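Recall that a protein's primary structure is simply its ordered list of amino acids. Everything else, from secondary elements to tertiary packing, is in principle encoded there. The following example makes that idea concrete.
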Amino acid sequence: MKNGKNLIPLSSKTPEERKRIASAGGKASAKARKEQASLKTIAEAFLKLPKSKGKKTEIESLKSLEDIEKANFDLKTLIVLQQLKKASEGDLKSAEWIQNLIGENVFEGTIIQTTSPEQMDYIQALKDTLLKKTAKDNSNIIDYKEKKGTEEN
């Protein structure tokens, strides 16, 4: 530890000094939490702003994807739309972000980076194999439960 010899353990300080140090740490922590909360509030407020002046477009009013270009969405919606656009163009990180957002990520915690169509085909084959294996395992469990139920009768 760099300059570790300069550190004085709290146990060697008087109770008054420990209390003063703890109080200062608590105040600094409260200040940091307050600043973090205000940053979150600011970010949330800006995310609700429409991209341009005028009435904000409601998603339900869209009739097709072509209407998106003319729409006046808030920034949150624009972020999701941008991620959807990137995912539709083959960006796997954007696709994973969308999957996580909607709670359908089959490969949670897996980071996939690819640069070629061959790698993407290979990854898709792995996913298909895993899904088939999962389905087979689930059907085996069901078959076992059905067999066990008939043996008991």
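Residues 114-153 form one domain. DSSP finds four helices and no strands in the chain.
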